[in-house]
């Protein structure tokens, strides 16, 4: 596996966004405002529900977050696609954390269920990513995972079959 820690604070995540954590040309997180987490509290390559790796992360919700003003005026809701993107970001982060090289790309998702909303009065999102497959070969580096997002402990998003690949190009 790697020698990286199993938890990361915001400064660590910003280093990853700048390409300083896993090295140039390897997995990166986006910079704010598209960075959809504030900390990773646990990560592994052999844990989780299926024993193939997992990530747990948190995102602090503040009423002044950029998306509340524009989605929707007078009825502020975090776009569901941003929660999905956070799950994709964490899936790619896990591949880089494993020491696998290449830039991360979301390839798709099997199923998405949105059963709740993130409004400005929420305090924290908790992401859980559980790998069902992690493959590194000469031709392919890819993770397949299921994920959930909880808002203040309430399950609001469920996804299955997320796919993220690392590519040298």
TrEMBL record:
Annotated pathway: Lipid metabolism; fatty acid biosynthesis
Keyword Lyase belongs to the record: yes
Gene3D superfamilies in UniProt: Hotdog Thioesterase
EC number: 4.2.1.59
Gene Ontology BP terms: fatty acid biosynthetic process
Entries under SUPFAM superfamilies matching the protein: Thioesterase/thiol ester dehydrase-isomerase
Protein name, entry field: 3-hydroxyacyl-[acyl-carrier-protein] dehydratase FabA
Taxonomic classification: Bacteria, Pseudomonadati, Pseudomonadota, Alphaproteobacteria, Rhodobacterales
Highest taxon of the lineage: Bacteria
Annotated Gene Ontology cellular component terms: cytoplasm
Pfam families named in the record: FabA
Organism expressing this protein natively: Palleronia salina
Known catalytic reactions: a (3R)-hydroxyacyl-[ACP] = a (2E)-enoyl-[ACP] + H2O
Keyword Manganese attached: no
Molecular function, one GO term: (3R)-hydroxyacyl-[acyl-carrier-protein] dehydratase activity
Stated family: Belongs to the thioester dehydratase family. FabA subfamily.
Subcellular location: Cytoplasm
Keywords, ordered alphabetically: Cytoplasm, Fatty acid biosynthesis, Fatty acid metabolism, Isomerase, Lipid biosynthesis, Lipid metabolism, Lyase
Subunit text: Homodimer.
């Amino acid at each position: 596996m790697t020698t990286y820690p199993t938890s990361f604070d915001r400064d660590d995540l910003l280093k990853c966004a700048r390409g300083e954590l896993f090295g140039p040309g390897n997995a990166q997180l986006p910079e704010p405002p598209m960075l959809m987490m504030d900390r990773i509290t646990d990560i592994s390559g052999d844990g989780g529900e299926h024993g193939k790796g997992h990530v747990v992360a948190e995102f602090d919700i503040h009423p002044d977050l950029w998306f509340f003003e524009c989605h929707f005026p007078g009825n502020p809701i975090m776009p569901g696609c941003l929660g999905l993107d956070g799950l994709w970001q964490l899936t790619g982060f896990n591949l880089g954390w494993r020491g696998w090289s290449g830039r991360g790309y979301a390839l798709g998702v099997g199923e998405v269920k949105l059963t709740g909303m993130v409004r400005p009065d929420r305090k924290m999102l908790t992401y859980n990513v559980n790998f069902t497959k992690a493959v590194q070969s000469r031709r392919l580096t890819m993770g397949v995972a299921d994920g959930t997002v909880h808002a203040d402990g309430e399950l609001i998003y469920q996804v299955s079959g997320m796919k993220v690949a690392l590519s040298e190009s």
